[in-house]
Amino acid sequence: MSKLSLELVKQVFPQLPPSVSTPIQGVSTDSRSLQPGEIFFAISGDRFDGHDFIQQAIDRGAAFCVSSKAKQRKADPKHCLTVNEPIDSLRELARAYRNTLEIEIIGVGGSNGKTTTKELCAFLLSQLLGNESVFKTAKSENSILGVALSLLRIKSERVAVIEIGIDEPGWMDRHLDLIQPDYGIITSISEEHLEKLNNIERVAQEELKLLQYIEQRGRGFACNRDCSWVSKQVVRVQHLGYSLKAKAEIEGKYLPPNRLSAFGMEWLNPLPGAHNALNLLASLCLLRLLRPDLQKSELKGLVKSLTSFSGEAHRSRLLRFEPNLLVFDDSYNANPASMAAALESFSEVSEGYEKIAVLGDMRELGDRSQEAHRALINRLSVGDLHKIFLIGPEMTKARSGLPKDSRIKVFDDIETLTNSLRQSITKNQSFLFKASRGLQLEVCLKVFENFKPKSSV
């Protein structure tokens, strides 16, 4: 339940439906999980149209529904407010609500590492301030819709860690207009969403707007000195730099496969790899920005507590099964930089195992797609992998123009891939799973359902 009041809602929507009489309990875009007293926004998406579930939302006790004028025939005038575009109205409400909040907000942007950095930062802050004092973006809800929903879910927390995603030009401006962050970080800048952002220069231009906002209106910035796009900026606001490779205010050393040396201490990171060591260092840098008086005794407590951190599903999760099977589940998403980082980490954690990589398309790369996929397959061909399973039209096309490699198998669908995987499992094997979100590669993990878990790291 949020602190959203009926009075604020009336300021944004002066002409409420006649049925509105109960206190406002929050907002929802999913009629299945809607709670009585929440406003239901009928959002039209790629797979579902919220207008088809208006009656279900009313039956579940929605305070009222916000629907599109273009689909007015589906709206009950007694319970529905019709607007030009429900998602814009949701964002308008989120903006008004943000202006009532007295809370420190951290904006987390970047091409890779956003979700993990957000999760680590929120976890560490909660250890210092208490769980009830820290809000974080749920999962990876970093879109135009997700950011608005996140803000509307803030209650009485002291600090909020908000993840910011950019899929196309102009998104960062729209996000910042709502979030109004006090602190910011850009975890990395690399090729992402090139179908609309076109090239890495445009990606950098869009991501760096977060820094520019913090310089004009914020209080502090965590500067990744290992990212050339960020490190070459002249930062005109209070900031701390962090690095695993260069000189910085906060320096760390990666100790493979999952340890970080920083602040004179050794941190056991549940998420393996140099990129996750950098994500952890980034979180510690943000912590120092918010808490410059952080004591060594508090840091020692954080070292101990970190062992209980788990992070989000399908992101650098290391799972172990009998008989001596290792699964590196990084299946949530992929682009060239994150794929390279995952392969490096997989190699480090898989010493002594038969290494099997299960990889799918890296989507939204535009004109760079085939070049990127061919480069990846060439890298796989000279690596230390024993078997390589590929899936997706981009992988298939890229593989067809390259020399034959008996280790590589290409699959047309998830079911065939899953069956082949199931037949390949023996013992002393390690598996890497990584692909873009749309392929839903995590479905393949069901092949391990009947194996006894040993432990998860």
Please give the largest β-sheet: 9 strands, mixed
Query: What is the share of helical residues?
Result: 25-40%
Q: Could you say what the CATH architecture of the largest domain is?
A: 3-Layer(aba) Sandwich
Continuous helix count: 16
Q: Which percent band covers the strand fraction?
A: 15-25%
C-alpha end-to-end distance? 33 Å
Shape: globular
Broad CATH class of the largest domain: Alpha Beta
Architecture overview:
The chain has 457 residues and is an alpha/beta fold. It folds into 3 domains: 6-84, MurE/MurF, N-terminal domain (Udp-n-acetylmuramoylalanyl-d-glutamate--2,6- Diaminopimelate Ligase, Chain: A, domain 1, 3-Layer(aba) Sandwich); 101-308, UDP-N-acetylmuramoyl-L-alanine:D-glutamate ligase, CATH 3.40.1190; 317-456, Alpha-Beta Complex (Protein-Tyrosine Phosphatase, Chain A), CATH 3.90.190.20. Helix content is 35%, strand content 21%. It has helices spanning 6-12, 54-59, 86-98, 114-129, 144-153, 171-179, 194-197, 200-207, 209-217, 228-231, 274-290, 296-305, 336-349, 369-381, 393-400, 414-424; strands at residues 26-28, 38-41, 64-68, 80-83, 104-109, 134-136, 159-163, 183-186, 220-224, 239-243, 250-255, 259-262, 265-268, 317-321, 325-329, 354-360, 387-391, 408-411, 429-434, 453-456. The protein has a 9-stranded mixed sheet, sandwiched between helices. Helix 3 (86-98) crosses helix 5 (144-153), helix 4 (114-129) packs across helix 11 (274-290) and helix 5 runs parallel beside helix 6. The chain starts with 5 loop residues before the first helix and ends with a strand. The model has no long low-confidence stretch (mean pLDDT 95).
